[in-house]
Amino acid sequence: MPDILVRDVNIKTLKRLKDRARQNGRSLQSEAKMLLEQAAGTSIAEALAAAAAIRTRRAGRKFSDSVKLIRQDRRR
């Protein structure tokens, strides 16, 4: 697996990262890796594939019209 080197990290940032790692029971490296992976996020292709899978699973189901329900509730 490739490595990454981050130079000149601000002392306050490093302290906060170490504190966060300690609170989460992780090493500094594991915490930094997790944060980088979260920041990289999901690609558009992955998000579209996940949305398509949800639509497929829900196909054919009947859903209520929330607009009608909200209007009825406001009239009370």
Structural summary, described in words:
The protein is mainly α and 76 residues long. It has helices at residues 11-23, 28-40, 44-58, 66-75. Helix 1 packs across helix 2. The model has no long low-confidence stretch (mean pLDDT 92).
User: What value does the average pLDDT take?
Assistant: 92
Query: Strand portion, in percent?
Result: under 5%
Low-confidence segments, given as residue ranges, are none
Radius of gyration of CA atoms, rounded to a whole number: 22 Å
Basic shape: elongated
Annotation keywords:
76 residues; mainly alpha; 4 helices; 67% helix
List the helices and strands and how they pair.
Elements: H1 11-23, H2 28-40, H3 44-58, H4 66-75
Helix pairs in contact: 1-2
Can you summarize this structure?
With 76 residues, this protein is an all-alpha fold. Helix content is 67%, strand content 0%.
